[in-house]
Fold each of these.
Amino acid sequence: MEICRQNESLEIRELDPFLAELLRQIPDSVNTKNSPAAEERLLSAPAEAKETEFRSEWKLYVVPELRRLFQSSTETVRQDLEQLHCTKKPFANCTLKIPLAHADAWLNALNQARLAIAASYNFTEHELADHFRSPFGNRRDLGLFQVNFYGFLQEFILREIPACTDEG
Amino acid sequence: MSGQRREDEAPSASQLMEYPVIAQGTVETPTVEKEEATKGEIQAPWNVVVHNDPVNLMTYVTMVFQRVFGYPRERAEKHMLEVHQKGRSILWSGVRERAELYVQQLHAYLLLATIEKPG
């Protein structure tokens, strides 16, 4: 796999079928319907439990906006991932182009996916820091690999986009 | 710092709840006591706290602090490291409605952020 910036887009070339499949799973990974832990993490509480009024207002007014934002990012990523369905040979390597204008949506969707997977499997800090874990043998190990792979992509995107500040 | 909302800012959750009730062309004015209490509550300093999260990348958290608060990279990194090492960092203190807005923005970036009253 090779990842680089090409003019106004980020390109992931020589993407092998396994990694391509992991990317295709991003939109499904952010679905929290079957994981209360993931739902709780993506829509965390904005204040202590004693702030009951504020928390109920938050659920009423802010949470729907956050859901819309998260869904919008995921939809952008889903559309970009359509490129991966166009390969003529089923097991051929392929290229994914991410327009720079979509970088924020990718950062958000990748983060949603990482947080949702980590919450669902209740990964420990030690597990998350173990980047040299041996090859995976079960779904949980694969989940950890996903978290790390998506993190690697986030790091690359972060290097290529400005933080929108004067840096001074 | 003024507690008044700028024209181009979206109202926060608490602001939405504080708008006067409009019925049949009349505006019900809140009682003086309630108005003073609300004003006092809004003007008391509130902290915007970000809590540690082993999943969010350090570079990502730094970028978020730069974007949301307009902090230069060094200051953003200092807060990021404080979150990482001490478990939490106070990113901003001030009027409640603005603190709520910051927390909302931080949640949009999926950081663990809360509003807290000091002491």
Amino acid sequence: MAEQNSNAKAEQFDSSLFQPVEFNEQAGERIAGKSLNFWQDAWTRLRKNKAAILSLVIIVIIALLSLFGPMLSGRDAYTQTITQAKLPPKITGLEWAGFDGMATLGEKPIDFYETKQVKDTFWFGTDHLGRDLWSRVWEGTRISLFIGLVAAIIDVLVGVTYGGISAYYGGRVDNIMQRIAEILTGIPNLILIILFILILEPGITTIILAMTITGWIGMSRLVRGQILKLKNQEFVLAARTLGASSARLVFKHLIPNTLGTIIISLMFTIPGAIFFEAFLSFIGLGLAPPQPSLGTLINEGYKELKTFPYLLVIPSTILVLVMISFNMLADGLRDAFDPRLRR
Amino acid sequence: MGRYLAQRLVYGVLTFLLIASFTFFLMDLLPGSPFQNQEKLSPEQLDILRDKYNLNDPLPQRYAAYMVNLVQGDLGVSFKYDSRPVTDLIMERIGPSAQLGIQALVLGVLLGLVLGVVAALRHNTAVDYGAMFISVLGISVPSFVFASLLQYYIGVKWGVLPVAFWESPAHTILPTVSLSLGVTASIARFVRTEMLEVTGQDYVTLAKAKGLDGQSITWKHMVRNALIPAITILGPMTAALITGTFVIEKIFAVPGLGELFVSSITQNDYTVIMGTTLFFSAVFIFMILLVDILYGVVDPRIRLGGSK
């Protein structure tokens, strides 16, 4: 019925109304879109992810502040001025937002700048030894970021090498290497980290070393999985046929194809490492005293929480901001590099 | 299955013995001394003290003695706490830690489940984004920051709940909530991903075609299947919970194992550090083993050890 109807309608149109499309073989073969390489493609997708871009911007701002922040206030992060100890944050023009230099001692709020007769204003206040918290926070952020970045890079280097060799050679090599990794994963890494820190001198290098001892295993697993998948594909066979050496195959063909996975994992490792550093500092196993890190600052702030909450709140806020940004950016990158995983 | 199980058990025991040996030799390298006021003691007195704890014996002999005792379930005596056996100390502290861990796990799993399921059902809506933002927040906010803030605002400022100590059920609320934050966040993310994964499965389409109502499709068909892979995060979760208890117990003055571990580190109490380390390792190894076994039991499609 419906078919007859449409047939009747079609007959109303004169065939002269139509123009035949000329078939052009070359036009059919023309590539319409611009050809994008892996990075351009990922960037196009990442750009659409507002949360990830916002996170990237926040990370850049925090990183810049951690480098140049102390210069902005013009104060040193280590100079102690006891007469200016424990001054709450004060920013001229931002008094309404809580940066008014007031703290509650006992029942009523007191302007500490008045009682201590300090003319200067400290943007983030000062700590119990009168050190400028603004400078200390950014100095600490720089150290935390440095620890996170270096630990993550070492994890990647070791993990990629280990996973790459294990998967590429396969067979008995793979078997032995995987059994070793399996035993290592059975060890709760935090306890291993703590034991290492107890033995070595506390400091940045110790923390980084301790974190990387077991940190690379997850990375090596990921890389192994990827390479196992890739190594039997035709392009590898082609390269091999052309006489490429093992090293060339691994470093020129296999690893570049796992770069997406590696970068995503790297981005998730950085906040993890920053968290561990903060955690260790919080239980008193972090950096030695005068050196600030976000963790030691939070630990110091926690002791003064009742009267001077800003000492905890400010470094905590920065830490949380860094962690959220890295996690969101990593999420965004995962979607960008591997759209199949997109949710 | 039997063979696989035996193999896994052997691996577990091997790992444990390896950790035990490793920690033993690490303890020997530890700087400092377990005796307080060491400077005030004369060399003779110190010698007597060291003799008492067999610290003067050569390392291999002490190692052998420790391992033999360990196999018999004896972890030695504490250098502090009036030379009490370490096993007694652990037994005493295990209660609060276990309670705290289990409460946090239950609360976290339930909350995370609800959050994850709701987010998946309202995929790409404000509800979904909201739930995922909470989840990212939960993963990003370190538990000790969250715990400090909870303690300050709810305990100190508003005085709603006890600030610290482990006395009544009310005392357990703040530590439990602090510890469960991470669990909630990771379960929510995981469940959401898995729920989205099963949405497109044939059996869900079939259930819809049969005319089942949305509720029973969601809970009976989707959630159940989505939960199977969630078992795999039990291992890392245990590790995270143990990590969490170190700081949470310190903040809320909970007399648990984490607190014992952290304080034994600051006091150089070798035997207690070793004892708690081994205990945590045993729990962790057991959880990993359990996950492997459970995984095969819950989902018969997974055959362990490659046997048919």
